[in-house]
Amino acid sequence: MGRLTNLRRIIGLIKDKASQGKATLISNPETLSLHLALLRATTHDCSAPPHPKYITTLLSFGHSTRHTAAAAVEALMDRLQSTRDSSVAIKCLITIHHIVRDGSFIIQDQLSVYPSTGGRNYLKLSNFRDIASPLTWELSSWVRWYARYIEHVLSTSRVSGFFLCSASSTSEKDKEEGRVLALMNSDLLREIDSLVGLLEEICQRPDGLHLQNKSLVGEITNMVGEDYLSAINDILIRLSEFNERLGCLSFGDSVELACVLKRLENCKEHISDLSIRKRALTESLWCLGSEMRSKVEMLKGYREDCKLLLTFREESESK
């Protein structure tokens, strides 16, 4: 097994050198630095995540023109779609995740509209399999899940109007509470539903704690952990607003809110160990969610009793 691993590493190194040499020969001067940075960020080496220097170089293409940013996103997506190597695929996904978190508005915008059709299976990796070794087979399950997770991040970003855990959205988040105050109940429910759906996707992450020490999976876990804390904060803001509106909710809204709160509660057991930071924040969410679910269930029961009583009176008066 050790010899096979070393052989695979050598083959991967040769492929990386060949790809970089080919890019040097066929790329035009305007795109050469882009393609070289991409190839160096997404090597076949499974022992290390993308080097920050190359991630920074790729992100810099989002500070130029929209055309340049679109070219960077297209090159990254082409690399992701053409590879059958789990390490390359994971590094491409990590790079996409960095665009979501640290990219400029221009490159984030290009990511959000690629491809123009959008839709489910956005990254088209649900059938990804790397059967080269037992390790790559396990990493393949992380590729499939991580792609679904990023798809959900992009979907949630469209619903909320800003990229989750994004540095570029900090100024927008400062206005978040004020914006939430102005939302209609239906829009507020839609945003909470999407954010809770993101937590549910995190709960679906693959088993294999022995892989947590592997640098690629460890990098994924760290980045998703940051998103998790950001999502919890966003859910808390919205639940706090709904807590103020409980007495004014329609019966339909209270039923829908109760369903979302139940889904949130189901996440607690599977997700609490993801991050040891900001325990007070996470505990605040679980406590508020549980408290609100009890209130909503009582409100539903009261309104159901009222509806039954009203129906009984109407039937009695018609006799």
TrEMBL record:
It comes from Erythroxylum novogranatense. The keyword Membrane applies. One of its GO terms (molecular function) is SNARE binding. Keywords: Coated pit, Cytoplasmic vesicle, Endocytosis, Golgi apparatus, Membrane. CDD domains: ANTH_N_AP180_plant (cd16987). Residues 26-164 form the ENTH domain. PANTHER family: CLATHRIN ASSEMBLY PROTEIN (PTHR22951), OS09G0468150 PROTEIN (PTHR22951:SF76). It is found in: Cytoplasmic vesicle, Clathrin-coated vesicle; Golgi apparatus; Membrane, Clathrin-coated pit. This is ENTH domain-containing protein. SUPFAM superfamilies: ENTH/VHS domain. One of its GO terms (biological process) is vesicle budding from membrane. InterPro entries: ANTH_dom (IPR011417), ANTH_N_plant (IPR048050), AP180-like (IPR045192), ENTH (IPR013809), ENTH_VHS (IPR008942). Pfam families: ANTH (PF07651). GO terms for cellular component: clathrin-coated pit; clathrin-coated vesicle; Golgi apparatus.
